[in-house]
Amino acid sequence: MTNEVEIFVHGSCHFSERLDSDETVGTGGYGVVICVNGKRVEEFSGGFSNTTNARMDIIGITEGLKKVLKPSNITVYLTNGYVIDTLSKGWLEKWKKIGFKNKKHVDLWIQLDKVLSSNSHSISFKHSNNVKFSKDFKQAQMLGKSMSGINNLPTDIKTTFNNLPDLFAESQTNLSRNVVSEISKSEPILDSICVDASTISNPGPTEYRGVDTGTREILFEVKLHEATNNIGEFLAIVHALALYKKNGKELKIIYSDSLNAIAWVKQKRCKTKYEKTDANQKVFDLIQRAVIWLQNNHYDTKILKWNTSDWGQIPADYGRK
Hints:
Layout: E1 3-13, H1 14-19, E2 26-36, E3 39-51, H2 53-66, E4 72-78, H3 81-88, H4 91-97, H5 106-117, E5 122-127, H6 135-148, H7 164-169, E6 193-199, E7 204-212, E8 218-227, H8 229-246, E9 253-256, H9 259-267, H10 281-296, E10 302-305, H11 308-311
Parallel strand pairs: 1-4, 4-5, 6-9, 9-10
Antiparallel strand pairs: 1-2, 2-3, 6-7, 7-8
Helix pairs in contact: 2-5, 8-9, 8-10
C-alpha cells in the first residue's frame, strides 16, 4: 500500500511580513510538519539571517521531502504562489535547460531538483488556502514564525548587494582622512553613484537605492522594516562606500540630496531623533554597524550634495514626491 503523505511548509521572513515581498532580505525561518496517512509523524524548523520568504519555503520543501524515504503520494502545502508555480507549471525544468540564467535562488533550486530527481514519489504542490486552519498547517506556521524571530542565526545569502550587514562586517584599521564635501555647484559628474531613500508614512516602511548617475542602472536596492527617510539616506551612502571598498573598486563621488545624511556620514554618527523600539531594533542594529564601519575605514570618495534646483531630481529618486 502506498502511503499518503502531506507536508505542510511555512516560510517566514521578518521584514517581508511588513513589506509584503517574497524577496525582501531579513531574518527568516521555516516550519515543516509531516503527516503520513492522516497522522502527524514529524515536525521541525530552521532559520537564517539575511534570507527571504521564498528561500525559506524552498528550503522547507527540500528538507521535508528528504524525510520521506518510502515511495509515496506526497502533497506539499505552502502559501508561496511563486514557488508553487515554479514546481507545478514546469518552470524549474525550463530554467534548468537555460542554465538558470537570470533566475534567483539558483543554489536552492539545484538542491531541490536533486531531491526531486532522486526519488520515485508522486508529488503535487498546492496552495495552503484549503488547509490553513488545520492544526498541522498552523503548527508549521508557528514553527516558521518562531524561528524568524531568533537573533544570531547563520547567514543564508552571503554575496548580494542587499546583504547590508555583510558589507559592514569586515572593518579595516586604516584611519586616514575621509573626504566629504557638502555641496557641489558645478555640473553633475556622471562617473559617480547617486543615492536616495523613500519612506511610507515617515517613519514607516523604508527603501533606499544606489544608481549609476550616468547609465541610470540600479546598483543596489534595500528595503527596511521600519525607519525614517534620513536613516535610509544615511545607510544608502554608507552602503555605497562599503560595497565598493569590499569589491576593491575606486568610488570617486557619491551624490545625495540629503544634507542631514551627508552631515551624519561626515560626523560618523547617525543623529536621528527616532526612538528605538522592538519594531525597529534591526534597523538600529544596521545603523550601529554602519557607524562602526565609518569609524574604522578610510575612503577618498567625495560625498556631494545633489543640486536639485539646477539639475532636477536626483537619478535615484523614487518619484513619489
